[in-house]
Amino acid sequence: MNVVTARFGEIEVDESKIINMQGGIIGFEHLKKYILHMQDEKNPFWWYQSLDDGKIAFVVINPFIAKADYEPVISDNDIKFLEIKGPDDVVLLAIVTILQNPFSVSANLRAPIVINAEKRIAKQIILEDQTYPVKYYLTTGPADEAAATGDSEKPNNCKTASL
Amino acid sequence: MLILTRKLGEAITISDDIKITVLETKGKQVKLGIEAPAHITVHRAEIYQLIREQNIQAAKVDSIEKETLPDILTGLKSLF
């Protein structure tokens, strides 16, 4: 099928790659179908493109690239809901927020998108554990420090991911 | 807003498959038990709102120029 997107123009979508979100992204519950699109092979930032509204696309990243020791606890309810049989079924994505003036890039580690890669169903879950911030900064600099004082969600040791 | 007053142990039903029970009250805190099917998400309102706002901000990436964004994302590759 072909979908017209704001960012990429008309793209051809392999229907077997479509991801179905019964609940949708929080705040965008009316959008259910998405496709994962790679910028280029070597770029860890991917696009989570809505097929229901071509204007909506989220920059996402594998949260383990942002934080190697990321250990989200997925509830039994969600495991059941997503029909997850084992860890190999699961792909996690963190939604990335890019702001300009001042420039900052953060990943939402508190509410990852959990995908059952085999069944191609997904859900955005909110972790009970408050360790992981909603804004885990991938950039450092004045924007970071200013945000640190005002943002109670961000833990003290939140810094750029190391290579 | 519908306002109902409940005593400890009493409950409220919403639709035909959601039930909220007052389990415990302790000072200013109320412990609520929520029974709902798995596809219904239940969250503390303030965290739900926070996530919702963050998602909306993240979606605003569409206002960043199509031309600049690939450069930003390429530049960020060096972080990893």
Descriptive terms for the model:
heterodimer, A: 163 residues, mainly beta, BH3618-like, 3 helices, 11 strands, globular, disordered C terminus, B: 80 residues, alpha+beta, three-stranded antiparallel beta sheet, 2 helices, 3 strands, 30% helix
Strand order of the largest sheet of chain B: 1-2-3
Provide the CATH top-level class of chain A. Mainly Beta
Tally of separate helices of chain A: 3
Q: What composes the largest sheet of chain B?
A: 3 strands, antiparallel
Q: Which radius of gyration of chain B do the C-alpha atoms yield? A: 21 Å
* Approximate shape of chain B: elongated
Describe this structure in words.
With 163 residues, chain A is mainly β. Chain A has one domain (2-150): BH3618-like. Chain A has helices at 63-66, 76-81, 142-150, and strands at 2-5, 9-12, 19-21, 33-38, 45-50, 57-61, 90-99, 104-107, 113-116, 121-124, 136-137. In chain A, strands 3-4-5-6-7-9-10 form a seven-stranded mixed beta barrel. In chain A, strands 1-2 form a two-stranded antiparallel sheet. In chain A, a hairpin with a 6-residue loop joins strand 4 (33-38) and strand 5 (45-50). The longest helix of chain A has 9 residues, at 142-150. The N and C termini of chain A lie far apart (39 Å). Residues 142-163 of chain A have low confidence and may be disordered. Chain B is α+β, with helices and mostly antiparallel strands and 80 residues long. Chain B has two domains: 1-40, no CATH class; 43-80. Chain B is 30% helix and 25% strand. Chain B is built from two helices and three strands; from the N terminus they run βββαα. In chain B, strands 1-2-3 form a three-stranded antiparallel beta sheet, with no helix packed on it. In chain B, a hairpin with a 2-residue loop joins strand 2 and strand 3 (29-35). Chain B is elongated, with a radius of gyration of 21 Å. The relative contact order of chain B is 0.09. The interface between A and B is large, with 43 and 29 residues.
